[in-house]
Write a structure and sequence with these properties.
heterodimer; A: 565 residues; alpha/beta; Glucose Oxidase, domain 1; Enzyme I, Chain A, domain 2; eight-stranded parallel barrel; seven-stranded mixed sheet; 23 helices; B: 88 residues; alpha+beta; Histidine-containing Protein, Chain: A; four-stranded antiparallel sheet; 4 strands
Chain lengths: 565, 88
């Protein structure tokens, strides 16, 4: 079957194809508005009750947090501004339900998008979600609620809430005709451990609902009505995996050492102090990336030094001696933070953001630096500069740190030692790694953005997302080059992007001499185990092989073979 | 009618998650509870109203309470605001 493996694994279950029906939302005037309103009421009630059921289930299993997305949709169905507006449109214009739902949802999305509030802007996806729910319930064709029982879903694409919903009702595997390796959907599948294949053109035409299928996301195949031999292969795989998973527990709290005795560390990427406890309990050896953008969002003015200081200190204290690497503000036009006064740009990802903005805006930059320096009194803190492209940016940033240090001393504030490092995420920084390594204390390679900039392909653009691949030799050469430069200057080099935790790539990072991998909290034990299986010399040989290859297929083939061993 | 000035303590303001909590908490009162902001009234019993009020951390909101249990509602609101509507 065409496609690429997004989440490795195997699944055996019945096929559950999801065929998107294009629902007609054109205006078809109705005579009997009372009947139309009844239709709407019935559909709304069906949606409410299925939402309420899901919320109850999720709250029981996962806690109230995850249920929040759905609760919002439930409240919208009771909200006069939403459902009330739909009713009024039906009555006033003798409109059919579908038209009214579609028009009012669009208006509501526009209203939300116009607010100067990043959190609310993002809720437009929820409006689309409830709109789709209502429309489906109105057309009454496909019963929205999936039955229980293990199933392998096949669809063109899925929304994150669909993945969550299906996950509640026995999702064994996922096949998407579209999808991208770094789409939200895939990230969810990975975290839920659901084998997943994407880019599977024509998969929907290969199966009928209810057929037993074997999703082989190791060899990238879909076997309909598998025979005895395939079933045995599946059972062998399941047994092997169960044995492996049982041993994962012991990798939570041991040191990270390669098979040949080289010490490394597994850090985690976090965005708030609320994640520190989980990080520690999952065996994280530090925070490799503290994203600080959340501190700046949903506010009418920048967070002051005291607020930042109290947040960073809380994290430092919670880490109990483990290092904290704070990334200074990495935000741009895409996040709609009005008080930063970033002008509208055609291309915010290539624009006035992160360090570029901060160097011009001392009131923001210096405040953040001050809070970081002060928090360093309580434990080891490192400062990391995002999106660096030139040596002069580093020099200016270090000057700023010096200036803030002096001003805090004059104020009589206690400050700690903070090493200053940089994210290597622009190709410019990667190429000039030798120079940069002489003027910073450490590197952290941001593979997500580095890959995008390197291949000039937007990971969210379905047409080109394919190009954005960690398995391309171009990226691997670049990372190796950065590592070599770091070693020559005797500084540490970390990886904090998603690529750091991809099973097949870990031997490469070990082979390149990466010092620390900063991964998502749930992945910590798995990544540690993978590192401990690696012998540095053998891994170095692997690196030499891949960097001389010409394309990702060769690379993937070799790496997958290695992982299977 | 009782008018109260209450400060938003929630770190991220009245973002979508907490908007649900607010709508549900305020919905329990008999009296109407509305925020007057920039010449507009936002109904805190409606999740849309809460969101459109676009309240940020530190904002001091003018809240109008109207109804048979307005005294109790006003007192309860003080606590709700101070306790960030139950947000951690």
């Amino acid at each position: 079957m065409n496609g690429r493996i997004a989440v490795r694994g195997m699944a055996l279950a019945r096929a559950y194809p999801i065929i998107e029906q294009k629902i007609d939302t054109g205006l078809r005037p109705v005579e009997d508005t009372a009947a139309e309103l009844k239709r709407l009421q019935a559909a709304s009630e069906r949606c409410s009750s299925s939402l309420a059921e899901m919320i109850e289930q999720i709250s029981r299993e996962n806690g109230a947090e995850d249920a929040g997305i759905l609760d919002f949709q439930l409240l919208l169905l009771e909200d006069d501004n939403y459902i009330g507006a739909i009713r009024r449109l039906i009555t006033k214009e003798k409109a059919n339900c579908e038209y009214a739902v579609s028009v009012c949802s669009e208006r509501y999305r526009d209203e939300l998008a116009s607010l100067d509030n990043a959190y609310l802007n993002e809720r437009t996806a929820d409006i689309t979600d409830i709109e789709t729910r209502l429309l489906r319930s109105l057309t009454n064709s496909e019963e929205e609620k999936p039955d229980d029982g293990e199933k392998i879903v096949i669809a063109v694409d899925l929304t994150p809430s669909q993945v969550i919903e299906l996950g509640r009702a026995g999702l064994s595997g996922m096949i998407l005709e579209k999808g991208g390796l770094s789409s939200h959907c895939v990230i969810l599948a990975r975290s839920m451990n659901i084998p997943c294949i994407i880019g599977a053109d024509g998969a929907l035409s290969m199966v009928r609902e209810g057929q037993t299928v074997l999703l082989d996301a190791i060899n990238c195949a879909l076997i309909v009505q598998p025979d005895g031999e395939r079933l045995q292969m599946y059972r062998d795989y399941i047994n092997k995996t169960e044995r492996e998973n049982a041993t994962l527990e012991e990798f939570r709290h041991c040191q990270t050492v390669t098979a040949d005795g080289r010490r490394m560390k597994v850090y985690a990427n976090i965005a708030s102090e609320h994640e520190v406890d989980t990080l520690v309990s999952q065996g994280g050896e530090g925070v490799g990336l503290l994203r600080t953008e959340m501190l700046y969002m949903g506010r009418s003015a920048a967070p002051d030094e005291e607020l930042q200081f109290s947040t960073y200190s809380a994290i430092v204290k919670g880490l109990g001696g483990r290092p904290l690497i704070v990334r200074t503000l990495d935000v741009g036009g895409d996040k709609h933070i009005p008080y930063l006064n970033i002008p509208d740009e055609d291309n915010p990802f290539l624009g006035y953001r992160a360090i570029r903005y901060c160097l011009d805006t001392p009131e923001i930059f210096h405040t953040q630096i001050a809070a970081i320096l002060r928090a360093a009194v309580f434990g080891p803190v490192q400062l990391m500069l995002p999106m660096i492209a030139t040596v002069s940016e580093v020099r200016r940033a270090k000057d700023a740190v010096r200036a803030v240090r002096e001003s805090l001393s004059r104020r009589g504030e206690k400050i700690g030692d903070v090493s200053v490092g940089m994210m290597v995420e622009t190709p410019a920084a990667a190429i000039m790694a030798d120079r940069f390594s002489e003027i910073v204390d450490f590197f952290s390679i941001g593979t997500n953005d580095l890959t995008q900039y390197l291949f000039a392909a937007d990971r969210n653009n379905a047409h080109v997302a394919r190009l954005n691949s960690y398995f391309q030799p171009a990226l691997l050469r670049m990372v190796d080059h950065v590592c070599q430069a770091a070693h020559r200057s005797n500084i540490e080099v970390d990886i904090c992007g998603q690529a750091g935790e991809v099973d097949e790539l870990i031997p490469l990072w070990v082979g390149m001499g990466v010092d620390n991998l900063s991964v998502s909290i749930p992945s910590i034990p798995r990544v540690r185990r993978a590192i401990m299986d690696c012998d540095t010399e053998k891994c170095r040989a692997l690196v030499e092989s891949v960097i001389s290859m010409s394309g990702e297929d060769e690379v993937l083939a070799l790496l997958r073979k290695e992982v299977e061993k | 009618m009782i008018e109260k000035k209450l400060q938003v303590q929630n770190e991220l303001g009245f973002h979508a998650r907490v908007a649900c909590r607010i709508t549900r908490s305020v919905g329990a009162f008999q009296s109407s509870v509305k925020v007057r902001k920039d010449g507009q009234l936002f109904d805190l019993k409606s999740v849309t109203g809460v969101m459109m009020a676009n309240a940020k951390h530190g904002d001091i909101l003018t809240v109008e309470i109207n109804g048979p249990d307005e005294q109790e509602t006003a007192t309860a609101l003080e606590t709700l605001f101070a306790e960030k509507f139950g947000e951690k």
